[in-house]
Write a structure and sequence with these properties.
By secondary structure, this protein is α/β, with parallel strands linked by helices. It folds into two domains: 165 residues, 3-Layer(aba) Sandwich (Rossmann fold), CATH 3.40.50; 158 residues, Aspartate/ornithine carbamoyltransferase (Rossmann fold, 3-Layer(aba) Sandwich). The chain is 35% helix and 12% strand. The protein is built from twelve helices and nine strands. The strands form two sheets. Strands 7-6-5-8-9 form a five-stranded parallel beta sheet. Strands 2-1-3-4 form a four-stranded parallel beta sheet, with helices on both faces. The protein is globular, with a radius of gyration of 20 Å. The relative contact order is 0.17.
Length: 360
């Protein structure tokens, strides 16, 4: 069923409250070996969102990504674990970080990779998504990494594709691999690798952000004190979600940037998505930058060692100042690097579930 993207709280139904989830400490897999040879605490054949992942499953992804980061540190950053697996990367939107990191991740696992840009495929001649997915499968794809401008499109693909579908971002709805790499980056930087009680601020265009929606699930599941901040026109729907505390997800929504920034452990600036922006939501980009842009002055309200994040691409001088983007506290480049390890982990886990006949 296609999710309702104009009401973020709608995505919260049917999930287990974070407080009732039991943390797990999974064994780090020996990722040089095929996934079906190991006892992995993972049974999902697809990754369409993070809203149904338990805290234990999030820990499994993190542990597997730790192992993949060790692979990337080797002189030859490649293992034969998924040799013979055909991965098709099908993107209906422009992308650099996500597309390239998925391709690098798949090749590091010895997959055979096919890249398809919708603009240069039969989609431009009117081919439907269902027909494209069936064609890709007929050509031998075992795994499909997909980005689409329509929310819910990967869900439709998963209904007709016999292999594993990994959502690389759909409309305003979800960006699961980005949320997981953000979580991985934070765990690697925070003392004790714990988010419990840490004040994390997501600042900016939450309304149009699939990154914000997916991060709400992962960060609250790991115990963070989450704040969503931006102009009221770009927070529509989030207030209701937060007020209801749906599925145990309790977070603060505010337009008071000073209150949000005060004593923050982490600040994640969101890109102003001009390509999705309807008329009248913002007076101007200049005014947005003046009132909500992440600057050195605003960062002084946060803790001295506050971590600065951005999912990219950045509009420097709008949602984040250029000097903040390269500040020693910034982990923006590390997010990109960690994306390869996390996406290797996801491909590895989903391949194992696919071969074992795992659940959707």
């Amino acid at each position: 069923m296609t999710p309702e993207v104009d009401r973020p709280e709608a995505a919260s139904s049917g999930s287990t409250p974070a407080a009732s989830r039991t943390p797990a400490t999974p064994a780090v897999p020996a990722v040089d070996a095929p996934p079906e040879t190991q006892d992995l605490a993972w049974r999902h054949r697809h990754l369409l969102d993070v809203d149904d992942l338990t805290r234990g499953e999030l820990e499994t992804v993190m542990g597997t990504a730790d192992a993949m980061r060790e692979v990337l540190a080797r002189p030859i950053a490649k293992v034969p674990a998924l040799r013979g697996t055909n991965v098709t990367i099908l993107f209906y939107e422009a992308s650099t970080r996500t597309r390239v990191s998925f391709e690098a991740a798949a090749k590091n696992l010895s997959c055979d990779v096919t890249n398809i840009a919708a603009a240069s495929s039969s989609v431009s001649k009117g081919e439907s998504l269902v027909d494209t997915v069936r064609t890709v499968e007929a050509l031998g794809a075992h795994m499909l990494v997909m980005r689409h401008n329509v929310s819910g499109a990967p869900y439709l693909a998963s209904e007709v594709f016999g292999g594993a579908v990994l959502n690389g971002g759909d409309g305003w709805h979800a960006h699961p691999s980005q949320a997981l790499l953000d979580l991985f980056t934070l765990r690697s930087r925070l003392p004790g690798r714990s988010l419990e009680g840490r004040k994390i601020v997501i600042l900016g265009d939450a309304l149009h952000s699939r990154v914000a929606r997916s991060n709400i699930w992962t960060l609250t599941a790991m115990g963070a004190d989450l704040w969503i901040c931006g102009p009221s026109t770009l927070l529509r729907g989030f207030e209701g979600w937060a007020a209801r505390g749906a599925a145990g997800r309790r977070f603060t929504v505010t337009s008071d940037v000073d209150a949000a920034m005060r004593d923050a452990d982490v600040v994640m600036a969101l890109r102003i998505q001009k390509e999705r922006m309807a008329g009248g939501l913002l007076p101007s980009l200049r005014e947005y930058a003046a009132r909500y842009g992440l600057t050195k002055e605003r960062l002084r309200l946060a803790k001295p060692d506050c971590i600065v994040m951005h999912p990219g691409p950045m509009n420097e001088g709008v949602e984040i100042a250029a000097d903040v983007a390269v500040d020693p506290r910034s982990v923006i480049t590390a997010q990109v690097t960690n994306g390869v390890a996390v996406r290797m982990a996801l491909l590895y886990l989903l391949a194992g579930a696919r071969r074992a006949g795992g659940n959707a």
